[in-house]
Amino acid sequence: MSILIKNAYIVTMDKDGAGEIENGFLLIENNLISKIGDNSNNAADSISAGTVIDAKGAILMPGLSNTHTHLGMTLLRGYADDMALQAWLETKIWPAEANLTAEDVYYGSLLGCLEMIRSGTTAFCDMYFFMDETAKAVEKAGIRGCLSYGMIEFGDEEKGNKELATNEKLVRDWQGKANGRITTMYGPHAPNTCCQSFIGRSKEAAERDGVGVHIHVLETEAELNQMKENHGMCSVHHLDAVDFWNTEKIPVLAAHCVWMSDGDIKLFAKKGVTVSHNPISNMKLASGIAPIQKMLDAGVSVSLGTDGCASNNNLNLFEEMKTAALLQKVGTMSPTALPAKAVVEMATVNGGRVIDKQTGVLKAGNKADMILVDIQKANATPVFDVYSHLVYAAAGSDVKTMIVDGKILMENYKVLVMDEEEVMKKAKECAFSLAERAKPKK
Ligand SMILES: O=c1[nH]cnc2c1ncn2[C@@H]1O[C@H](CO)[C@@H](O)[C@H]1O
Ligand SMILES: [Zn+2]
Fold this sequence. Notes:
This is 5'-deoxyadenosine deaminase. The structure is a single chain. Strands 1, 2, 3, 4, 5, 14, 15, 16 and 17 form a 9-stranded mixed beta sheet that branches. The chain is built from 14 helices and 17 strands. Helix content is 39%, strand content 23%. It has a domain at 2-62 and 361-415: Urease, subunit C, domain 1 (Roll). It is of the alpha/beta class. α2 packs parallel to α3, α4 packs parallel to α5 (196-209) and α11 packs across α13. It is globular. The mean pLDDT is 97. It binds inosine and zinc ion. Residues 70, 89, 93, 97, 127-128, 150, 189-190, 216, 219, 281, 307-308, 311 line the site of inosine (NOS).
């Protein structure tokens, strides 16, 4: 199987390599990129391929990576808004989740995959329940998923053992499946919903199994205050005591990181932790503004995430890129903070690196995960600077074609891997039935 894409404006995101190629070609053989180059002299004409895509009028770039989602929560899009995080979780979200079924999570996940395909996201890191169902949805949709089970034990050892066993089963059953598109992590939920020793144990299990860890950390000021009151230190230092941030053996992914001190940032830089910045969720729940420019200056690898659809309320990383840039500028009162190219790097290179080292950059030998962004549109006229266009003017709905692992998932706006109408219909049925079951009993 080979695919040749030609006449594209290629944004490789390869710092040491090709950079941008105004009129380029890219050859895919099986699931890998085998060649990439300049086509202004029609060099691609001598290459034969099974499928040829003429990408004139489009940007070819690495697919985006969404490093923090709860995919099953797409069913709860718009279910509870305009609330503070703790009240939102305790009075609305957790009671609804208590009624979730496997079928709900399957269709919620499939709907999430569909939305990601339509808006340019080729890979994501998830933390939720019924993860077999999310894995099945990822298998069908053709994208790349790094799946963790959201473990919550509230200091209860017996519950903790069960939670660890459930996550372990996910790792055993799915790690490396679907030609490596499905990978797994351990997902201790947060430092204020899991105790320190449990989080330490989940890190040990992850190292034993050779997979990463994914956690929420310092999302709210309330968490910071609670940790200081109960343990005399912030969540980052509390978990450093069990060596949680050590990335020598496995990747460590920390979502939110809004209330990080300068010392926390230094520690993350030194340890090599990947941060998932979720600006829209942080704004919607009024959690605060994460110090992203400071993190980048300190050398922390920062990626982008949407969080679940109940706190965003979509999975559109183009919106997230623009919001990230704007929020940093207003947060630091500096218009030069978080410039466009740095944001694109977060959504591609940095996110890709934590999911699969062979993704996030278009270069020979990497996996063939990429998108075509349509620029024959009013909102793309003119394009002076491609990064500025992608962050400030482009929309998720401008993504016209997606290839993951060498397979075309969407071509010229047509999704090839599922019946869209059917998926939306089923997801809607599941969502309304779930809301009905979650109503308080009289
Ligand atoms: O922003 C958030 N902060 C903390 N928890 C969250 C957030 N969004 C979703 N969940 C919750 O995390 C668990 C995942 O396993 C779920 O209970 C989900 O509702
Ligand atoms: Zn979350």
